[in-house]
Amino acid sequence: MSERSPAPGGLGLVETLVNTLDLETGADSLDTEEGRARLGVTEEGVPAARELRESLRATLLAHAGHPPHRPVTPLGELLAAAPLVVTVDPADGSAALAPTGEGSLTARVAAAVAQALVAGTWSRFKACEAADCHWAYYDRSPAGRGRWCSMQVCGARAKMRRYRAKES
Length: 168
Prior knowledge:
Elements: H1 11-18, H2 33-39, H3 46-63, H4 75-80, E1 84-88, E2 95-99, H5 105-119, E3 125-127, E4 136-138, H6 151-167
Antiparallel strand pairs: 1-2, 3-4
């Protein structure tokens, strides 16, 4: 739904996962083989991917100052089970957290969150405040106070509702 540019670094994976569900239409790309393949999720892994997605959405709503959209497993509990290792590049000595082995979706998300935390980008990753949207987006506004994934769609709708409520 958003016309914003993709989230930086590994947050692009998280953004893709959260935005697999269109709340307005109910369409879930995890229901399709192509949608699952984009994230490396098997059909058996869909329930876990959905649980992770909704936990992430609740966290992104919290970043934007909003309560969770529904009760969810806390994100910290889900990511605590993610198998990660510290890797060190012998050429330049740079270190990073990486998923072990094949890298489950949860481990890849945990590594992306850790990378964003170190880069200082995690708190600017938010969910749209529109109740029928909650699309994930990266807030690039100077003050970090973005509220909607799209000013032209969700922002305009909210402003129109507020205007009509004042006129009534």
